[in-house]
Amino acid sequence: MNAPFQPTDSSGPVRDDYVPAADYISREFLQLEKARLWPRAWQMACRAEEIPAVGDYYTYDIADESIVVVRTGPEAFSAYYNVCPHRGRRLTSGCGHTARFHCRFHGWQWSLDGANTLVVDREEWGGCLTDADVALKPVRIETWGGWVYVNMDPEAAPLAEWLAPAKDFLDPFDLAGLRYQWRKSTILPCNWKVALEAFNEGYHVQTTHRQMLEYMDDVTVSHTHGRHAMFAYWEALPMGSRSRRIGGPLTDDIRPGILAYMEDMAATLNAGSSVRAVHAARRVMQEVAPGSSPIEVLTAFGGFIREDAVNSGAGFPPITPQEIYAAGIDWHLFPNQIMLQSPTGLLGYRARPNGDDPDSCVWDVYSLQRYPPGQEPQVVQEWSHDLADEAFWGRILCQDYENMADIQRGMKSRGFAGSRPNPVQERAVSNFHRALHDFVAED
User: Which of 126, 146, 305, 443 has the smallest count of CB within 10 Å of its CB?
Assistant: First the structure.
């Protein structure tokens, strides 16, 4: 009989350059996450814009739990375990609108504040059912950056403390002022951590997205901030430069490279403020003289983006170039939220375990933009299980998805003891697992 899986603390097998394979493939580890991570971690459930009116609700499923998030006032939200206290039936699925919660099994009902308003034939319990017995059980809920977060631990630290210090870097971007451009979901054939980790490091660009090396020097540095982490291109050549990896002379005019970069991203990803960035890059080609220094070109490019956003009525946050630089390009907020942020848009990712299968996960990807008030599009969540459909996902995401199943299968090999992350460019990966081991090791 196999011995039970034993978690280790942060001084155990996880190092800057090593993560054990069991973290990704072990069913026992998945059960530890279910028991010790998800019930105690703050998790992004939805965007506030997904439930704009009082009575709008969103059903957030994680592992075996389901939580219903509902708007109860113009700026107020509540969350409850999505279960009828009578016989355990789930009350909601997906998104919707209601004036009251209703169990379709026996007809019990609740107001939006979770109080029971109807127990059919309640008198037959002889007074032994208290109001507390039949109320919906609340879940901790807080908001930040336009997102609604939930936590099943009533003793959890406040969300602001959980997000520190990442939120200090991200608050200047006014993420709450962004709105959905599109949102898409699927089931990926890999562990939820494999999916996330494909998007919290830039080290894979030089192979998976090699076409991008013609206009970007891809060398990144990864920095940890408590349980969270980020990466940046601080040591790379200026945007628009050919990568040093592919040789050739250094780029002396980055203007064409910036335009190629922005046009490619708009065509193959179409996320964040890609269209606005294309317009700014075209203005750079027209209005910035050849021979201008990289700092002059990049300053003009950023200024054109800002000017276009302001003139369109979308606005621009009061953020400085120094704050944009310090925030890097990509943040992994523990446990399962990743974002690539800019002042005018954001590309976001979320991964969740798919039941008790360590080889599968629920994957959400979305784009946010800054829009003039009243011009925000009505966006519905789209699903596709065709991971090679470039018309749906775009070339960049399809390239990423090509790796997922082969990674998951490969990690089960007797020849694979564990991942060997790059300790400079992939430190976010090992930092993530240290924090995860801390969680599953605690009593």
Answer: 443
